[in-house]
């Protein structure tokens, strides 16, 4: 798995890099144990805008490319860690939905073969 981390409108301290690695990267590795396919995880964290001071100003975005498929998660939060946590939950939902879709199509094909 290839991982790239980008900070927008803010600096990325090592604690943020470790937190992203602990949350997003490990979640993707745990749910996607695949061999042979190229998996690319691009993560972008930072402030949504420079001029807002209150409210949901931190943003976390994760783009997961599995072969030709793109799974995307984006979240806003009051703190950077909250935005990362929300993005992790959304990415986990996307991965599970992707895996279930492949399984459903496989079972649908098996049912059609059985009817013949």
The secondary-structure class comes to: alpha+beta
- How many β-strands, per DSSP? 4
Q: Quickly count the helices.
A: 2
The unreliable regions are: none
- Average pLDDT works out at 87
SSE order, as H and E?
A: EHEEEH
Task: Evaluate the radius of gyration.
Answer: 17 Å
Q: Beta-strand level of the residues, as a percent range?
A: 25-35%
- Biggest sheet statistics: 4 strands, mixed
Shape, please?
elongated
First CA to last CA: what distance?
Answer: 40 Å
Helix content: 40-55%
Strand order of the largest sheet: 1-2-3-4
Write the layout of secondary structure elements.
Layout: E1 2-8, H1 14-31, E2 39-47, E3 58-66, E4 69-77, H2 80-115
Parallel strand pairs: 1-2
Antiparallel strand pairs: 2-3, 3-4
Helix pairs in contact: 1-2
Structural commentary:
This protein has 116 residues and is α+β, with helices and mostly antiparallel strands. 47% of the residues lie in helices and 29% in strands. The chain is built from 2 helices and 4 strands. It has helices at 14-31, 80-115, and strands at residues 2-8, 39-47, 58-66, 69-77. The protein has a 4-stranded mixed β-sheet. A hairpin with a 2-residue loop joins strand 3 and strand 4 (69-77). It starts with a strand and ends with a helix. 18% of the residues are buried. The model has no long low-confidence stretch (mean pLDDT 87).
């Amino acid at each position: 798995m290839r991982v790239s981390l980008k900070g927008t409108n803010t600096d990325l301290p090592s604690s943020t890099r470790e937190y992203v690695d602990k949350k997003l990267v490990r979640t993707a590795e745990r749910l996607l144990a695949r061999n042979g396919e190229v998996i690319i995880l691009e993560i972008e964290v930072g402030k949504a805008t420079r001029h807002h001071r209150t409210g949901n100003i931190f943003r976390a975005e994760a783009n997961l490319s599995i072969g030709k498929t793109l799974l995307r998660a984006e979240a806003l939060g009051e703190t950077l860690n909250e935005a990362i946590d929300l993005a992790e939950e959304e990415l986990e939902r996307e991965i599970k939905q992707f895996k279930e879709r492949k399984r459903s199509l496989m079972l649908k094909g098996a049912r059609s073969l059985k009817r013949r």
